[in-house]
Design a protein that fits this description.
By secondary structure, the chain is of the alpha+beta class. The strands form two sheets. A three-stranded antiparallel β-sheet has the order 3-5-4. Strands 1-2 form a two-stranded antiparallel ribbon. The protein is built from four helices and five strands. The relative contact order is 0.17.
Length: 123
């Protein structure tokens, strides 16, 4: 998720605070923490070395600059989402909405289904 994505007027919902917190923690882990050997000295003692994350793909339903073809994994995505019984009162309606959006995003790039992201290339 994009940790700055608080709400969507377009889709009429407020983003969960735990989604924003997890997004911020993931970003912090990618930069600068994953590069800084002094942050986790015990890792170095275990033979683990710092690594450089080159890019992040952030979900923000209101804006994007990067499209990914999900045609091959769309069925698996819907199956995984369907297992979250506590999240959806009417999964058929949710699936219809997700499918419609994925088709719309895919059409623009010649794919059957696609998702959109904000792409950050890290220094």
């Amino acid at each position: 998720m994009d940790p700055t994505f608080y709400y969507s007027a377009k889709f009429n919902f407020i983003n969960h605070t735990d989604h924003r917190a997890a997004a911020l923690a993931a970003m912090d882990a990618c930069f600068p923490l994953s590069r800084d050997r002094l942050t986790f000295l015990h890792h170095e003692k275990e033979g683990l070395k710092p690594h450089r994350v080159e890019e992040l793909l952030l979900v923000n339903f209101e804006k994007s600059d990067f499209i990914v073809d999900i045609t091959k994994t769309f069925t698996k995505k819907m199956k995984a989402l369907s297992l979250h019984d506590s999240q959806f009162d009417d999964f058929e309606a949710i699936e219809k909405m997700i499918r419609k959006r994925a088709e719309f995003l895919g059409r623009a790039k010649g794919h059957k289904y696609a998702e959109n992201f904000i792409r950050l290339k890290l220094p």
